[in-house]
Amino acid sequence: MRAAPRRKIGIRRILGWLQIAVALGVIVFWFVALRPAAWGGPAGYAFISGRSMLPKYHTGDVVIVHRHSSYHRGEVIAYRIPAGNVGAGLEVIHRIIGGNGRTGFLVQGDNRTTPDVWRPKTTDVVGSAWVHIPQASRFIKLLHSPLVLAGLAAFIAFGAVLRHGAKKPEEDESEPGASGDLMLLRPEQTEGSELERLSAELEHLDGVIDELVKSRTAIAQARYWLLVQEPEAEDQSQSH
């Protein structure tokens, strides 16, 4: 009769280790392949805007680029406009059609008839195209929405409450007595402990909901200030 609980605990332990392994795998993959160059990683993120790379890339696409020691003709690269030029520091993603990394690459958009006026060198190149994600910029912008962030926080908090509520005291697997008789609890004892646990969970959930409401109110006030108050302040300063 006691084999089932032990088996259940074993399955939970295996699932727990699998979750840890998956999480570690994701972290390692991000660290090796997706870590931004600003954090010492090999990756850069180019947000497509315009028609210069049609039909390959469209406005709203995101291209993940990887930094290399050298680049060759035919590669699509993201580069920063060299210092001393108009727009210096801005990123452009075009294809190499000639030149070299020492004296400067000749780059041109697939949908352009003339090359770029800039001649980026290897030190100006962020990286060459690695992964193309169509229309990913819309998803990234959506993640910056306060309502989405508040909803995500609510989902995480709700999941934490459910997980906390699912935890039960470990069953005492020791034998209840030498005679092998089962130890029975009186109904009033079981009902009382269950009601106390449910009451504690409801109090905890109520506190979480209060915090979420406060956070959403703060976000709404911040959005109101950004959308309404700042333009009014600018108008007043211009009128003076």
How would you describe this structure to a colleague?
It is a single chain. The protein has 240 residues and is an alpha+beta fold. The N and C termini lie far apart (84 Å).
Shape: elongated
Report the radius of gyration as a whole number of Å.
29 Å
- Hey, roughly how much beta strand do the residues contain? 15-25%
Q: Widest sheet: strand order?
A: 1-2-6-3-4-5
Measured between the Cα atoms of the first and last residue, the distance is 84 Å
Helix content: 40-55%
- Total number of helices: 4
Mean pLDDT over all positions:
74
Instruction: Give, in order, the helices and strands.
Output: HEEEEEEHHH
Structural class: alpha+beta
The number of strands is 6
Largest sheet: 6 strands, antiparallel
| Uncertain segments | 168-191, 228-240
Highlighted features:
single chain, 240 residues, alpha+beta, 6-stranded antiparallel sheet, 4 helices, 48% helix, elongated, disordered C terminus
List the helices and strands and how they pair.
Blueprint: H1 3-34, E1 43-47, E2 62-66, E3 76-80, E4 91-100, E5 104-108, E6 125-133, H2 136-143, H3 146-166, H4 187-239
Antiparallel strand pairs: 1-2, 2-6, 3-4, 3-6, 4-5
Helix pairs in contact: 3-4
Condensed summary:
48% of the residues lie in helices and 16% in strands. By secondary structure, the chain is of the alpha+beta class.
